[in-house]
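[Meeting: bench + compute handoff]

Bench side (C.D.) handed over the final construct sequence. Compute side (W.E.) agreed to return the predicted structure before the next meeting so the bench team could plan truncations. Sequence as handed over:
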Amino acid sequence: MRIGLYGGSFDPVHRGHLLVAQAALEELALDRLLFIPAAQSPFKPGQTPTPAALRLRWLRLALAGQTQFSVESLEVERGGVSYSIETVRTFQSRFPEAHLFWLIGADHVTKLPLWRESEALARSVEFVVIPRPGEAPATLPELYRLHQLAGWPLKVSASEIRERVRRGQTIRHLVPDAVADSVEESGVYRGVN
């Protein structure tokens, strides 16, 4: 079994995330792709994410009806800082015969050696690099097995979406309609800097 693990804050999930997931599913011939929202990123200690219940709700709305994608809440249930190695070990025990792939944004590739137990992580998964439009492919030492995702890079970010909501602008077409409705209903990003 080939399983993709897609970690991140998903604050909120947007069409760029969904396009990346579809590209990974197709390009790597994955059997499943799991979206894993972080409780707290170790690289953003001063940034408090939107409450996990909302981020999980938005992911479930965005993925409704998608049988090869699912939402895994283990990091938010575990709480505290989310470390990828802990999550990978959980999936290794759940799926001992699976080949695991970890999706990572190109902007995080150079930070991989700083990740907790990075060498153990490098032996456990193959990293799938999500390209940034207009940027050169990322490179790392041989220890890390990297795939460059071709996909459909879409220049949209969750921080831009939060800023649009704060300014009272629409986020329609940047996120699935059900997510846009839920974000608006929650009022979560209004007045946030």
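W.E. noted at the follow-up: The domain at 2-155 is CATH 3.40.50.620 (Rossmann fold). C.D. will use this when planning the next construct.
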